[in-house]
Specification:
This protein has 11 helices and 10 strands. With 329 residues, it is an alpha/beta fold. It has 2 domains: 166 residues, D-Maltodextrin-Binding Protein, domain 2; 98 residues, D-Maltodextrin-Binding Protein, domain 2. Strands 1, 2, 3, 4, 5, 6, 7, 8, 9 and 10 form a 10-stranded mixed β-sheet that branches. Helix 2 links the parallel strand 1 and strand 2. The longest helix has 28 residues. The radius of gyration is 23 Å and the shape is globular. The structure holds D-malate. D-malate binds next to helix 2, helix 6 and helix 7.
Protein backbone atom coordinates (compact mmCIF):
# COMPACT_ATOMS: atom_id res chain seq x y z
CA UNK A 1 0.00 0.00 0.00
CA UNK A 2 2.86 2.33 0.99
CA UNK A 3 4.66 1.52 -2.25
CA UNK A 4 1.52 2.24 -4.20
CA UNK A 5 1.09 5.65 -2.51
CA UNK A 6 4.74 6.59 -3.22
CA UNK A 7 4.35 5.55 -6.85
CA UNK A 8 1.23 7.65 -7.23
CA UNK A 9 2.95 10.59 -5.53
CA UNK A 10 6.01 10.30 -7.80
CA UNK A 11 3.82 10.04 -10.87
CA UNK A 12 1.81 13.11 -9.79
CA UNK A 13 4.97 15.15 -9.14
CA UNK A 14 6.41 14.09 -12.50
CA UNK A 15 3.20 15.10 -14.25
CA UNK A 16 3.23 18.45 -12.45
CA UNK A 17 6.86 19.06 -13.41
CA UNK A 18 6.17 18.11 -17.02
CA UNK A 19 3.13 20.37 -17.02
CA UNK A 20 5.08 23.27 -15.54
CA UNK A 21 8.01 22.98 -17.92
CA UNK A 22 6.38 24.43 -21.08
CA UNK A 23 4.95 27.41 -19.13
CA UNK A 24 8.32 28.22 -17.54
CA UNK A 25 10.03 27.78 -20.89
CA UNK A 26 7.53 29.99 -22.68
CA UNK A 27 8.03 32.71 -20.07
CA UNK A 28 11.82 32.59 -20.34
CA UNK A 29 11.53 32.80 -24.16
CA UNK A 30 8.96 35.60 -24.04
CA UNK A 31 8.57 37.45 -26.34
CA UNK A 32 9.19 35.16 -29.30
CA UNK A 33 6.73 37.00 -31.58
CA UNK A 34 5.13 40.43 -32.01
CA UNK A 35 3.29 42.03 -29.11
CA UNK A 36 -0.05 43.79 -29.72
CA UNK A 37 -0.67 47.13 -28.05
CA UNK A 38 -4.40 47.87 -28.03
CA UNK A 39 -5.41 51.55 -28.22
CA UNK A 40 -9.05 52.43 -27.45
CA UNK A 41 -9.42 55.29 -29.96
CA UNK A 42 -8.93 55.89 -33.69
CA UNK A 43 -5.60 56.02 -35.53
CA UNK A 44 -4.16 59.50 -35.90
CA UNK A 45 -5.52 60.71 -32.54
CA UNK A 46 -3.60 61.59 -29.37
CA UNK A 47 -3.72 58.18 -27.64
CA UNK A 48 -2.69 56.47 -30.88
CA UNK A 49 0.22 58.89 -31.20
CA UNK A 50 1.47 58.15 -27.66
CA UNK A 51 1.12 54.41 -28.36
CA UNK A 52 3.05 54.58 -31.63
CA UNK A 53 5.80 56.71 -30.06
CA UNK A 54 6.23 54.26 -27.17
CA UNK A 55 5.83 51.11 -29.32
CA UNK A 56 9.05 51.69 -31.24
CA UNK A 57 11.52 51.95 -28.30
CA UNK A 58 9.62 49.29 -26.32
CA UNK A 59 9.88 46.95 -29.30
CA UNK A 60 13.62 47.62 -29.50
CA UNK A 61 14.01 46.89 -25.79
CA UNK A 62 12.00 43.65 -26.10
CA UNK A 63 13.64 42.50 -29.34
CA UNK A 64 10.21 42.15 -31.02
CA UNK A 65 7.85 44.46 -32.89
CA UNK A 66 5.11 46.10 -30.85
CA UNK A 67 2.10 46.46 -33.17
CA UNK A 68 -0.57 49.08 -32.42
CA UNK A 69 -4.18 47.90 -32.79
CA UNK A 70 -7.03 50.45 -32.70
CA UNK A 71 -10.13 48.86 -31.11
CA UNK A 72 -12.51 51.79 -31.02
CA UNK A 73 -15.93 52.75 -29.66
CA UNK A 74 -17.92 53.48 -26.49
CA UNK A 75 -15.35 55.89 -25.06
CA UNK A 76 -12.63 53.23 -24.91
CA UNK A 77 -14.68 50.54 -23.13
CA UNK A 78 -14.83 48.14 -26.11
CA UNK A 79 -11.04 47.97 -26.09
CA UNK A 80 -11.05 47.54 -22.30
CA UNK A 81 -13.31 44.50 -22.62
CA UNK A 82 -11.17 43.09 -25.45
CA UNK A 83 -7.96 43.24 -23.37
CA UNK A 84 -9.64 42.02 -20.16
CA UNK A 85 -10.65 38.85 -22.06
CA UNK A 86 -7.34 38.38 -23.93
CA UNK A 87 -4.98 35.50 -23.04
CA UNK A 88 -2.74 36.65 -20.15
CA UNK A 89 0.48 35.76 -21.94
CA UNK A 90 2.14 39.15 -22.46
CA UNK A 91 1.23 39.33 -26.15
CA UNK A 92 -1.74 41.69 -25.66
CA UNK A 93 -1.24 44.99 -23.85
CA UNK A 94 -3.46 48.02 -23.31
CA UNK A 95 -2.62 51.70 -23.41
CA UNK A 96 -5.40 53.86 -22.01
CA UNK A 97 -5.68 57.28 -20.42
CA UNK A 98 -7.75 58.54 -17.50
CA UNK A 99 -10.88 57.16 -19.20
CA UNK A 100 -9.94 53.93 -17.41
CA UNK A 101 -10.82 55.70 -14.13
CA UNK A 102 -14.04 57.38 -15.27
CA UNK A 103 -15.55 54.33 -17.02
CA UNK A 104 -16.85 52.57 -13.84
CA UNK A 105 -18.97 55.60 -12.90
CA UNK A 106 -20.02 56.50 -16.46
CA UNK A 107 -20.98 53.05 -17.77
CA UNK A 108 -23.75 51.21 -15.91
CA UNK A 109 -23.08 48.01 -17.88
CA UNK A 110 -19.28 47.99 -17.97
CA UNK A 111 -18.20 44.47 -18.92
CA UNK A 112 -14.81 44.66 -17.20
CA UNK A 113 -13.45 45.89 -13.90
CA UNK A 114 -10.48 48.28 -14.29
CA UNK A 115 -9.24 47.36 -10.79
CA UNK A 116 -9.67 43.56 -11.02
CA UNK A 117 -9.16 42.55 -14.65
CA UNK A 118 -5.70 43.99 -15.37
CA UNK A 119 -2.09 43.84 -14.28
CA UNK A 120 -0.31 47.18 -13.99
CA UNK A 121 2.88 47.89 -15.95
CA UNK A 122 3.32 51.62 -15.34
CA UNK A 123 2.29 55.18 -16.10
CA UNK A 124 3.58 56.70 -19.33
CA UNK A 125 2.99 60.42 -20.07
CA UNK A 126 0.85 63.37 -18.93
CA UNK A 127 -0.68 65.45 -21.73
CA UNK A 128 -2.36 68.90 -21.46
CA UNK A 129 -5.38 69.90 -23.55
CA UNK A 130 -6.41 72.94 -25.61
CA UNK A 131 -9.84 74.46 -26.37
CA UNK A 132 -10.15 74.89 -30.13
CA UNK A 133 -12.58 76.08 -32.79
CA UNK A 134 -12.79 75.73 -36.55
CA UNK A 135 -10.67 78.36 -38.30
CA UNK A 136 -13.63 80.51 -39.42
CA UNK A 137 -15.54 80.38 -36.12
CA UNK A 138 -16.81 83.95 -35.34
CA UNK A 139 -15.09 84.36 -31.91
CA UNK A 140 -11.47 85.45 -32.13
CA UNK A 141 -10.59 85.32 -28.40
CA UNK A 142 -11.88 83.72 -25.21
CA UNK A 143 -14.12 86.66 -24.20
CA UNK A 144 -15.79 86.57 -27.61
CA UNK A 145 -16.12 82.78 -27.38
CA UNK A 146 -17.88 83.09 -24.02
CA UNK A 147 -20.27 85.73 -25.37
CA UNK A 148 -20.92 83.76 -28.56
CA UNK A 149 -21.73 80.44 -26.88
CA UNK A 150 -23.97 82.19 -24.32
CA UNK A 151 -25.90 83.86 -27.13
CA UNK A 152 -26.11 80.83 -29.42
CA UNK A 153 -26.17 77.90 -26.95
CA UNK A 154 -27.23 74.63 -28.64
CA UNK A 155 -26.63 76.12 -32.10
CA UNK A 156 -22.94 75.68 -31.28
CA UNK A 157 -21.56 72.14 -31.73
CA UNK A 158 -18.86 70.67 -29.51
CA UNK A 159 -17.14 67.48 -30.73
CA UNK A 160 -15.82 64.72 -28.47
CA UNK A 161 -14.56 61.14 -28.68
CA UNK A 162 -17.48 59.51 -26.85
CA UNK A 163 -18.58 59.19 -23.24
CA UNK A 164 -15.56 58.92 -20.96
CA UNK A 165 -13.14 60.30 -23.54
CA UNK A 166 -11.11 63.16 -22.12
CA UNK A 167 -12.45 65.46 -24.86
CA UNK A 168 -15.90 64.65 -23.42
CA UNK A 169 -14.82 65.41 -19.83
CA UNK A 170 -13.07 68.64 -20.87
CA UNK A 171 -16.19 69.70 -22.79
CA UNK A 172 -18.42 68.95 -19.77
CA UNK A 173 -16.17 71.02 -17.52
CA UNK A 174 -16.18 73.88 -20.04
CA UNK A 175 -19.99 73.86 -20.37
CA UNK A 176 -20.52 73.68 -16.61
CA UNK A 177 -18.10 76.56 -15.91
CA UNK A 178 -19.57 78.77 -18.67
CA UNK A 179 -23.07 77.67 -17.65
CA UNK A 180 -24.43 76.71 -21.09
CA UNK A 181 -25.41 73.46 -22.83
CA UNK A 182 -23.97 73.12 -26.33
CA UNK A 183 -24.82 70.39 -28.86
CA UNK A 184 -22.27 67.62 -28.34
CA UNK A 185 -21.20 65.46 -31.29
CA UNK A 186 -19.54 62.12 -30.41
CA UNK A 187 -16.88 60.40 -32.57
CA UNK A 188 -14.79 57.25 -32.05
CA UNK A 189 -11.66 59.30 -31.41
CA UNK A 190 -10.55 62.89 -31.72
CA UNK A 191 -8.77 62.00 -35.01
CA UNK A 192 -12.06 62.06 -36.98
CA UNK A 193 -13.41 64.86 -34.73
CA UNK A 194 -10.38 66.97 -35.69
CA UNK A 195 -10.94 66.19 -39.39
CA UNK A 196 -14.48 67.54 -39.08
CA UNK A 197 -13.25 70.61 -37.18
CA UNK A 198 -10.76 71.27 -40.01
CA UNK A 199 -13.55 70.72 -42.54
CA UNK A 200 -15.88 73.12 -40.68
CA UNK A 201 -18.54 70.45 -39.90
CA UNK A 202 -18.27 71.06 -36.12
CA UNK A 203 -17.50 74.26 -34.20
CA UNK A 204 -15.49 73.39 -31.08
CA UNK A 205 -13.21 70.63 -29.76
CA UNK A 206 -11.14 70.26 -26.60
CA UNK A 207 -8.21 68.03 -27.54
CA UNK A 208 -4.74 67.02 -26.39
CA UNK A 209 -1.56 68.89 -27.28
CA UNK A 210 -0.03 65.72 -28.74
CA UNK A 211 -2.11 66.39 -31.86
CA UNK A 212 -3.16 70.03 -31.49
CA UNK A 213 0.19 71.86 -31.16
CA UNK A 214 1.08 71.44 -34.89
CA UNK A 215 -2.47 72.49 -35.94
CA UNK A 216 -2.33 75.60 -33.74
CA UNK A 217 1.17 76.55 -34.93
CA UNK A 218 0.09 76.19 -38.58
CA UNK A 219 -3.03 78.31 -37.96
CA UNK A 220 -5.35 75.52 -39.10
CA UNK A 221 -7.56 75.95 -36.01
CA UNK A 222 -8.39 78.75 -33.55
CA UNK A 223 -7.20 78.27 -29.97
CA UNK A 224 -8.79 79.89 -26.90
CA UNK A 225 -6.82 78.48 -24.00
CA UNK A 226 -4.85 75.63 -22.47
CA UNK A 227 -6.20 73.41 -19.68
CA UNK A 228 -3.18 73.64 -17.37
CA UNK A 229 -2.73 76.22 -14.60
CA UNK A 230 0.55 77.36 -16.18
CA UNK A 231 1.10 78.32 -19.83
CA UNK A 232 2.83 75.71 -22.01
CA UNK A 233 6.36 76.12 -23.35
CA UNK A 234 5.23 74.94 -26.81
CA UNK A 235 2.43 77.57 -26.89
CA UNK A 236 3.74 80.49 -24.78
CA UNK A 237 1.28 83.02 -26.23
CA UNK A 238 -1.82 80.95 -25.51
CA UNK A 239 -3.34 81.91 -22.13
CA UNK A 240 -4.64 79.32 -19.71
CA UNK A 241 -8.42 78.98 -19.32
CA UNK A 242 -7.86 79.61 -15.62
CA UNK A 243 -6.23 83.02 -16.18
CA UNK A 244 -9.12 83.99 -18.48
CA UNK A 245 -11.74 83.49 -15.79
CA UNK A 246 -12.48 79.73 -15.69
CA UNK A 247 -10.96 79.49 -12.21
CA UNK A 248 -9.31 76.17 -11.38
CA UNK A 249 -9.92 74.75 -14.88
CA UNK A 250 -7.31 72.00 -15.01
CA UNK A 251 -7.22 68.82 -17.11
CA UNK A 252 -3.97 66.92 -17.67
CA UNK A 253 -4.38 63.52 -19.27
CA UNK A 254 -2.47 60.69 -17.59
CA UNK A 255 -1.83 57.39 -19.41
CA UNK A 256 -1.25 53.86 -18.15
CA UNK A 257 0.05 50.62 -19.64
CA UNK A 258 -1.80 47.43 -18.62
CA UNK A 259 -1.83 43.67 -19.33
CA UNK A 260 -4.65 41.17 -18.78
CA UNK A 261 -5.00 39.83 -15.21
CA UNK A 262 -2.91 36.72 -14.69
CA UNK A 263 -0.01 37.72 -16.97
CA UNK A 264 3.00 35.97 -15.36
CA UNK A 265 5.19 38.08 -13.05
CA UNK A 266 8.44 37.48 -15.02
CA UNK A 267 6.72 38.77 -18.18
CA UNK A 268 5.38 41.83 -16.32
CA UNK A 269 8.90 42.54 -15.03
CA UNK A 270 10.28 42.43 -18.58
CA UNK A 271 7.47 44.71 -19.77
CA UNK A 272 8.10 47.22 -17.02
CA UNK A 273 11.85 47.20 -17.75
CA UNK A 274 11.11 47.79 -21.46
CA UNK A 275 8.72 50.65 -20.61
CA UNK A 276 11.35 52.33 -18.46
CA UNK A 277 13.98 52.00 -21.19
CA UNK A 278 11.48 53.36 -23.76
CA UNK A 279 10.70 56.41 -21.61
CA UNK A 280 14.40 57.39 -21.79
CA UNK A 281 14.39 57.21 -25.60
CA UNK A 282 15.73 60.45 -27.11
CA UNK A 283 13.17 60.56 -29.97
CA UNK A 284 10.27 60.10 -27.54
CA UNK A 285 11.71 62.71 -25.15
CA UNK A 286 12.14 65.26 -27.91
CA UNK A 287 8.69 64.68 -29.40
CA UNK A 288 6.99 64.91 -26.01
CA UNK A 289 8.84 68.15 -25.18
CA UNK A 290 7.80 69.66 -28.55
CA UNK A 291 4.18 68.79 -27.71
CA UNK A 292 4.38 70.14 -24.11
CA UNK A 293 3.70 66.65 -22.74
CA UNK A 294 5.54 65.24 -19.74
CA UNK A 295 7.14 61.81 -19.55
CA UNK A 296 6.34 60.58 -16.04
CA UNK A 297 9.08 60.40 -13.38
CA UNK A 298 10.50 56.88 -13.03
CA UNK A 299 8.74 56.17 -9.71
CA UNK A 300 5.41 56.51 -11.56
CA UNK A 301 6.49 54.26 -14.44
CA UNK A 302 5.98 51.30 -12.12
CA UNK A 303 3.10 48.88 -11.35
CA UNK A 304 2.69 50.54 -7.92
CA UNK A 305 2.73 54.03 -9.46
CA UNK A 306 -0.06 53.12 -11.90
CA UNK A 307 -2.11 51.23 -9.29
CA UNK A 308 -2.04 54.21 -6.90
CA UNK A 309 -2.99 56.60 -9.71
CA UNK A 310 -5.88 54.46 -10.98
CA UNK A 311 -7.28 53.86 -7.48
CA UNK A 312 -7.14 57.53 -6.50
CA UNK A 313 -8.61 58.70 -9.83
CA UNK A 314 -11.52 56.21 -9.58
CA UNK A 315 -12.19 57.54 -6.07
CA UNK A 316 -11.98 61.15 -7.36
CA UNK A 317 -14.17 60.83 -10.47
CA UNK A 318 -16.89 58.50 -9.11
CA UNK A 319 -18.63 61.09 -6.89
CA UNK A 320 -18.12 63.91 -9.44
CA UNK A 321 -19.82 61.87 -12.19
CA UNK A 322 -22.59 60.65 -9.89
CA UNK A 323 -23.29 64.22 -8.79
CA UNK A 324 -23.39 65.38 -12.41
CA UNK A 325 -25.83 62.56 -13.18
CA UNK A 326 -24.13 61.57 -16.44
CA UNK A 327 -24.00 57.93 -17.44
CA UNK A 328 -24.39 55.55 -20.38
CA UNK A 329 -26.88 52.68 -20.23
C1 LIG B 1 -8.12 59.96 -28.84
O1 LIG B 1 -7.07 59.34 -28.86
O2 LIG B 1 -8.89 60.00 -29.81
C2 LIG B 1 -8.45 60.75 -27.61
O3 LIG B 1 -7.58 60.46 -26.56
C3 LIG B 1 -9.86 60.53 -27.25
C4 LIG B 1 -10.24 61.35 -26.04
O4 LIG B 1 -10.62 62.50 -26.18
O5 LIG B 1 -10.17 60.82 -24.93
Amino acid sequence: MKLKFTTVLMATLAALCLGAAPAALSQSNWPDRSVILVVPFTAGGPTDLVARLIAVPMGKALGQTVLVENTVGAGGTIAGARVARAAPNGYTLFLHHMGMATAPALYKKLSFDPLKDFEYIGQVVDVPMTMLARKDFPASNFKELEAYVRANKTKVSLANAGMGAVSHLCGLLFMSQIGVDLTTVPYKGTGPAMNDLLGGQVDLLCDQTTTTVPMIKDGRVKVYGVTTLKRLTALPNVPTLDEQGLKGFEVKVWHGLYAPKGTPAPVLEKLNAALRVALQDSVLKQRMAELSSDIVPMDKATPAGLKTQLESEIAKWGPVIQKAGIYAD
